[in-house]
Amino acid sequence: MLRPLYIGVGVVLLYIFYKAMKGGKLLAGSISSDIASSVSVAAVKEALSNSGVDNSRASVVTDAADQIYKALYNYYYGMAEDEPAVIAALNGLRSSSEAIACARVYKANFGKSLYADIQKYLSLSERNEIKASFLLAIKPI
Q1: Does the predicted TM-score (pTM) go above 0.90?
Q2: Reported CATH class of domain 33-138
Q3: Which of 33, 39, 54, 113 is the most buried if burial means most Cβ atoms within 10 Å?
Q4: Taking the CB of residue 25, how many other CB atoms lie within 10 A of it?
């Protein structure tokens, strides 16, 4: 008698676990992501406008911020973060002003400090692979 109920509860729990592992939103995800994207577009434009980064490089900077976030937070089933992707994204930037703009975009989009996340998730030897001037530039942001 209760077997179908147990199966239903199991399916719901699997769905919740799956969404949590994928980093997705539950149920009202599409509505909240639309609102968040419209807010983040304005915040990104503001972050880039004061950074001195050329418009031609703005997409590179925003892509780097997205790549870093995905490498740190979108890992699956307990696997470790993708540290080489973080290092490559940061070292792909050309100047300290681009690193500062990347940190501002990261904070505007995800509400987190890029410097703090690098300190938290990368070891000292991995941090040494990132250009030192970039880490010094983003520290106060």
Answers
A1: no
A2: mainly alpha
A3: 113
A4: 13
